[in-house]
Design a protein that fits this description.
- The structure is a single chain.
- 40% of the residues lie in helices and 11% in strands.
- The protein has 196 residues and is an alpha+beta fold.
- It has a domain of 118 residues: VSR Endonuclease (Endonuclease, Chain A, 3-Layer(aba) Sandwich).
- A four-stranded mixed sheet has the order 1-2-3-4, with helices on both faces.
Length: 196
Amino acid sequence: MSPRASTTAKRAQRATPNRITADPPNTKAGTVASWATSPATRRAMQANRRRDTAPEMAIRRLVHASGLRYRVDARPLPTARHTADMIFTRARVAVFIDGCWWHGCAEHYRPPASNAGYWAAKVARNRERDRLADEALVAAGWAVIRVWEHELPESAARRIEAAVRAARHRQRPGQRPVPGSCRNDQSRCSPPARGR
């Protein structure tokens, strides 16, 4: 593709309206036709990030520095709709880093002044979805860790590291130990099997 054709294709792609954030048909551009009470509220809510938030990044840096490796923003169960912020697939540990406002933290949640009915129902649905996700993961044999955004990243990272290391020591029936998983306590694990 020539540079000119590439530029034209990019312009056409930018000109295509986004189905998620575009104004619904039959509304004037810039008018609010959604849950937002004003255009400023709508812009502020759309600027909220779904992943790579500051608390999440701080915890991920500390967990990575401790030597653990993980997948980011992944589904622990392929059939489930929920995604965890961090998953440790071999240890079967799912970590969710919940925002105090979006998930209704008992310490920090403060209901909004405008559109309170909508947001109260929204936060209640979020909490119910979190509960159902936890139950589904536990039933499938996963350990679930929920971290509030107000928790200190150091204590959250220590909690995650302890859960992952403990899960690596547990044996599921018919499964061999993961080589290198018992680095700190050789007395609790058998050596990895040799040969083919």
